[in-house]
Amino acid sequence: MKSKQAGSSIKRGLAAVAAVFTLMAGTAIAADPIKVGSFLSVTGPAAFLGDPEQKTLELYVEKINAAGGVLGRKLELVAYDSGGNAEKARTFVKRLIEQDKVDVIVGGSTTGETMAVVPLVEAAQVPFISLAGAVVIVEPVKKWVFKTPHTDRMACEKIFIDMQSRKFSKIALISGPGGFDKSMRGQCLGVAKKYGIEVIADETYGGGDTDMTAQLTKIKNTAGVQAVLNAGFGQGPAIVTKNYRQIGVSMPLYQSHGVASKEFIKLAGPAAEGVRLPAAALLVADSLPQSDAQRSVVVSYKNEYESRFKSEVSTFGGHAYDGLYIVVEAMKKAGGTDKAKVRDAIEATHGFMGTAGVFNMSPTDHMGLDLSAFRMLEVKGGNWTLVK
């Protein structure tokens, strides 16, 4: 009898131990971090994009974790510096997918590196939100690929609408060799007629060029040009702007949202005065009226970023903020990190107020912004101001 009781007691003890280990294992699984992968141009010629993007992701991953994480799990940011190099981007994304086993990817500072990794994320079926500008990223729609910045086509349209209001119909284009530059040039040429705009001069410059006076002199001497649009990003537009003033071109100069940061004004100096471009409300956050629905989001982000990093905010970091929070909201809706469910939830994003505007995505629109998300800005007194 005693032997049976002892055996029963041992069984109960073993069952209790097994239950404890099962509970501990379950807790460990529940506590596994949600891995957010990223590849960004933190160094190199596109560092003005990648640096604020990485800082933003670090800041808000910390903030989300301090508030309890997502669905009771901490976020873990796994980030690599691609330096804007497409081959490095491919290598890092393969690593993110195959070795790091990330749940989602938020990154890709430039169009070139983004497009280089699209086949990888599509094949692996990993949700990917790009932070690059060209429309080719989301048109045609790719099942697992989304983006947060306004497209180059939208920039062309916003600029052309402003040109219409100023009675300009004959313009000149100048652009660089990068993927964004080429794409925006093509998009502007494609939609110009729709807005009654005729491009009567079309010049280009090289990636390493430090003087564009030859191209700008041709534009200056082209009869009938009423305004000039520089489709580009990086240091090229700042050089164009300086040379523009140096040779005394008097026509209004427009830039793309690819230079929408205070860094452009610093690089171009006094020559930037009067330059117009379309950008997110973030650059003029404090100038927005209290009634503006976007004000609280952009002012909050601006204050938190500038307080933490002691540097001025840019729209590029804002794109990373939008991408991260769209992913977080999607995971909450999906109830976890199942990649297919998260992808579906991202695609169903509706009414999300970000730094770039209100996102309304759909199966046919993997960006979700319209022209109302753009503000037309002008440099006045060495700062961005809203065009009234």
Detailed description of the structure:
It is a single chain. The protein is of the alpha/beta class and 388 residues long. It has two domains: 34-150 and 293-372, Response regulator (Rossmann fold); 153-279, Rossmann fold, CATH 3.40.50.2300. Helix content is 45%, strand content 17%. The chain has helices spanning 2-31, 47-66, 86-98, 111-124, 152-165, 179-191, 213-220, 236-246, 262-268, 295-309, 315-334, 339-347; strands at 34-40, 75-81, 104-107, 128-130, 145-147, 170-175, 198-204, 227-231, 253-255, 276-279, 350-353, 358-360, 375-380, 383-386. The strands form four sheets. The chain has a five-stranded parallel β-sheet, sandwiched between helices. The longest helix is centred in the first third of the chain and has 30 residues, at 2-31. It is globular, with a radius of gyration of 25 Å. The N and C termini lie far apart (94 Å). Residues 13-29 have low confidence and may be disordered.
Summary keywords:
388 residues; alpha/beta; Rossmann fold; 5-stranded parallel β-sheet; 4-stranded parallel β-sheet; 12 helices; 14 strands; 17% strand; globular
Strand/helix succession: HEHEHEHEEHEHEHEHEHEHHHEEEE
CATH architecture of the largest domain: 3-Layer(aba) Sandwich
In percent, how helical is the residue content? 40-55%
CA-based gyration radius: 25 Å
The overall pLDDT average reads 92
Poorly predicted sequence stretches spanning 5 or more consecutive residues:
13-29
How many individual β-strands?
Answer: 14
CATH class of the largest domain: Alpha Beta
Distance, first to last CA? 94 Å
Number of domains: 2
Superfamily (CATH H level) name of the largest domain: Response regulator
CATH fold-level label of the largest domain: Rossmann fold
β-strand percent reads 15-25%
Can you count the helices?
Answer: 12
Q: Which class of secondary structure composition applies to the elements?
A: alpha/beta
Going across the biggest sheet, name each strand in turn. Answer: 2-1-3-4-5
